Amino acid sequence: MTIHGRSNAAVFIFMIGKSSIFLIGPMGSGKTAVGKQLARMLDLDFIDSDVEIEARTGVDIPLIFEKEGEAGFREREREAIEFLTAREGIVLATGGGAVLNSANRENLSQRGCVIYLQTSVDQQLERTRHGRQRPLLYTADPKAKLRELMAERLPLYEVTADLIVSTDGRRVQAVADEIAHLLADPKDASP
Question: Measured between alpha carbons, how far is 26 from 181 in angstroms, rounded to an integer?
């Protein structure tokens, strides 16, 4: 079934009263890549909250961390997520730490369908090892830092999510297809 050219997944999202999809999960879980693909498939706009923050400030995330610290960045992230989650018909990729703020968790949960892209620390390490845009990994032992972050954030990802989808060792298209299937047929889902 399609309504106004939208896929079954989009129809389900609109039927449950939520017109947007919000992707949460740790860095390297594939939120941006999967989000872009999912948005194309569902004919929705794609937004990355980190890109929004950079556009608002005119500087990159590492510079914000350097000048304002993590607390300054988290406040900017809260403002961006409050604004972005008020939009309808989007797929939003959030930063890995967005769930740390209770206002973010509330906005995400109330304003859209939240999908936690689950991945292992080893997979995160593999996917982030060449990136330079991850200030929290500017450390002598990135794997230990990823473990620490996961221990702190995992319960928040799980409590915020409507759906959980593993991305370990999977192609972007396969993950996006699974999400679309779960949205179209929610009885197959289990958070």
Answer: 23
